[in-house]
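In this notation, each integer encodes one residue's backbone shape. One such record reads:

___
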Amino acid sequence: MELKEIAEELVAGCRENRTRANLDKLYAADAVSVEAADMGGGREAVGLDAIKSKHDWWDNSMEMLDGDITGPMLHGDDRFAVIFRVKAREKATGNISEMEEVAVYHIADGRIVREEFFY
């Protein structure tokens, strides 16, 4: 897949609740996910299984109330960015929070090899 195709599929998958399926479709087996801050599990998740575990944690811990995605915004031939705005309820406490983050995705050999979140 080419950069634009990967970027558009990632965004479409997020909008259409196909994020989990897109992990296998778009990500390299050794992809790395980097958070801006350590939320208790370290900043980096290395490998597709670790990235899937991050998604599982989110799905089990948070209820999406509202959200918006801007992008993708392409950068050269190997990167793109997406802006995520999310309103979510923490299932354990009921606390509602609003978040905004920029995600930068790096592409090599037709797969996402690195994602970095800025918030």
User: Anything to note?
Assistant: Residues 22 and 66 are 21 Å apart (CA to CA). Helices lie at 3-15, 19-26, 48-61. The mean pLDDT is 96. The two ends are 28 Å apart (CA to CA).
